[in-house]
User: Fold this.
Amino acid sequence: MKKSAKIYVAGHRGMVGSAIVRKLYENGYGNVIFRTHDELDLCEQIEVRKFLEEEKPDAIIIAAAKVGGIGANNKYPAEFIYSNLNISTNLIHEAYKCGIDKVVFLGSSCIYPRLAPQPIREDALLSGPLEKTNEAYAVAKIAAMKMCEYYRKQYGVNYHSVMPTNLYGPGDNYHPFNSHVLPALLKRIHDAKINNDKEVEIWGTGSPLREFLHVDDMADATVFMLEQDNPPDWVNVGTGKEISILNLAKMIKEVVHYDGDIVFDSSKPDGTPRKLIDSSLINYLGWKAEISLKEGLKKTYSSFLSELSNNTIRNS
Assistant:
């Protein structure tokens, strides 16, 4: 990929998209374009077609998505499947129609079966039932990555996907209901510290194991894969390390300097019991994560405090 290439980043305002834009500029790509939702509704195919015909980017990175935690996925499955199917299918199909040869689609590790053998390899896809709490989101993501695979197979275009593990970092969503587990814990524990609460209640049992990847590492992996001439149809992107929700809460307590207790509400769902992905394929290609969880949490909390003071924190 030439540094002069015009690259369209869909979803540039989100946590992942904004990190990718920063990484592209950092790596010398000067012709990066994007549009806000008000300027371009990715769920509207005609709008997407007109935009791509006018701009004619050399490559597209699809980081746009409707995202949320267990609560939001459970409550709004129709919105999750509709929005994510439309965003990806419109961009992938219209990219092909407009002669755009390079598309990188950002998926999610939730595409894999709930009880897939750990660590989860790329070939575990569609080998078993999905986790019910985010099935709608996962189905939309699977459809998009298979669409990239099939367009590549039939038309010879270089469309492929990256499957990140759980992401966190600057620009995350801290909504009390719609956010993912790490930002939800961080904000809840921060609020407890500010309010001098003696304890913090957390959903589930604390036993599920999760892997977390800092969004700056994810952005680095995305640009790395963008630059591959003949990449696999999809690759996992993770750290290879996992932590229980209980120990994550303890680590956040330490970073936030909160002295209260953590209590769990076992009547609430845990989600998938364990989810560690196998990132050996992208490691073999030459990429590895660099930011440790402890270092990443410190950076994220510092960013959270800055966003809070500047009234720019995402809470939607």
User: Anything to note?
Assistant: The two ends are 35 Å apart (CA to CA). Residues 7-309 form a domain with the Rossmann fold fold (CATH 3.40.50.720).
